[in-house]
Specification:
- The structure is a single chain.
- It contains 16 helices and 9 strands.
- With 389 residues, it is α/β, with parallel strands linked by helices.
- The protein folds into 2 domains: 212 residues, Alpha-Beta Complex (Spore Coat Polysaccharide Biosynthesis Protein SpsA, Chain A), CATH 3.90.550.10; 138 residues, Alpha Horseshoe (Serine Threonine Protein Phosphatase 5, Tetratricopeptide repeat), CATH 1.25.40.
- Strands 1, 2, 3, 4, 5, 6, 7, 8 and 9 form a 9-stranded mixed sheet that branches.
- Helix 2 links the parallel strand 2 and strand 3.
- Helix 11 runs antiparallel to helix 12 and helix 14 packs antiparallel against helix 15.
- The longest helix is centred in the middle third of the chain and has 14 residues.
- 41% of the residues are buried.
């Protein structure tokens, strides 16, 4: 039998923490304990938890003597836990009542060693209403998983993720020096040690989006990703990428993604020139998009527009191509076509922040390139909700 401890880091969570804890108490398979670590809240978080403790002896409350941040708070929860597995749950999130039972079934059916498991997600609002389609992921392991996480992390939150405690101890938990995306750092370290992270293709974790989320800003998240990559360096990442058993064009285009993030523009252009991709390739759209980003950096906007036109001939629903082409049309004085493309982008991707900002500028007749937001990465199938930057 697998013993599961739930670790809930809490800071000023009085509004949501009862829903979070109750979603664990309502599991079809009971957990061993629910450990709440309060990180010096100044609201009624501890009062809410103590009231729940009067009815449920599974709940344990620990209070930090000083504010330590979410990484150290989760680490204390790991240290206080007695289970073989740790289920992380943020104090403002919820989970399906079948989450734990589903995880245990997965552990029992997989013969190889599992280090962690995560599910598909829904995003919910302040009233627990679902506000997004399903956010899907995939199984991650070894070199491929390491690269996948750094290219586009599919584990959108540590909340709802189950991790083997022995692995957490081996990794010394979360890196407390990292203030944002500390969970991404942990997953990358696990995968760099050839561990596997299993995936449940059912939306069993509900991530609440509100103005007070720790990482509510897109720019904050991107900056945190860069800090994590810096721990490994571009050459180490390149070595990992080219070890994968993909085609040379796939490995090279993925490396261009990292060159762009490191602003190695000359190397980007050279690699793209030396990696011809034919129109019938499944990577053709990505190839055109990456070329366009290099052209934008070099202020070759009409060349970039040519790439977007190629993309939209193949896929009329390519959100980033719609947004970026609209910006260039606006800069060229073609306001009518710019609005058509931007409206299509916003219709396909509600909550697309770049498009929303750009549409306001276009409607106000702006044409100055410095005011617009080009999207520098192809969009996820379902956008995450962030605050404006």
């Amino acid at each position: 039998m697998k013993n599961i401890s739930v670790v809930v880091p809490a800071y000023n969570a009085e509004k949501y923490i009862s829903k979070s804890i109750e979603s664990v108490l309502n599991q079809t398979y009971s957990v061993q304990e629910i450990i709440v670590i309060d990180d010096c809240s100044v609201d009624q978080t501890c009062k809410v938890v103590r009231k729940l403790m009067e009815k449920h002896n599974l709940i344990k409350l620990f209070e930090n003597e000083e504010n330590q941040g979410v990484s150290s708070t989760r680490n204390r929860g790991i240290n206080e836990s007695t289970g073989d597995w740790i289920l992380f749950l943020d104090a403002d999130d919820e989970c399906s009542q079948e989450l734990v039972e589903t995880y245990l079934s997965k552990i029992n059916e997989v013969t190889e060693d599992i280090s962690a498991i995560y599910p598909a997600y829904y995003q919910i609002d302040e009233n627990s209403h679902v506000i997004s389609p399903v956010l899907s992921g995939k199984r991650l392991s070894g070199v491929k998983g390491f690269c996948d996480i750094l290219i586009r992390n599919p584990i959108i939150s540590p909340s709802g993720v189950l991790v083997k405690k022995s692995r957490l101890v081996e990794m010394t938990g979360f890196n407390s020096s990292i203030k944002y995306d500390e969970d991404v750092d942990l997953w990358v370290r696990l995968l760099d040690k050839d561990c596997s992270i299993e995936y449940i293709d059912r939306p069993l974790s509900f991530i609440r989006r509100h103005a007070n989320n720790t990482t509510s800003s897109m720019s904050t998240s991107h900056n945190a990703e860069k800090l994590i990559m810096d721990q490994y360096g571009l050459e180490y990442i390149k070595e990992k990428l080219y070890k994968r058993d993909y085609t040379i064009e796939k490995n090279s285009l993925d490396f261009v993604l990292f060159l762009i993030r490191y602003k190695q523009w000359e190397q980007c252009e050279e690699l793209l020139e030396n990696t011809p991709v034919l129109e019938d390739s499944s990577y053709y759209i990505t190839y055109c998009f990456l070329k366009s980003i290099v052209y934008i950096e070099n202020k070759r906007f009409n060349d970039a527009l040519g790439e977007y036109e190629k993309i939209l001939l193949v896929n009329v629903e390519h959100g980033a191509a719609l947004n970026n082409s609209a910006v260039i049309y606006a800069m060229n004085g073609n306001k009518e076509k710019a609005i058509i493309h931007m409206e299509q982008a916003m219709l396909l991707f509600p909550g697309y922040l770049d498009a929303r900002q750009n549409m306001m500028l276009i409607q106000n007749g702006k044409t100055d390139e410095s005011q617009f937001r080009f999207t520098l990465r192809e969009l996820r199938p379902v956008l995450l909700s962030y605050s404006t930057d």
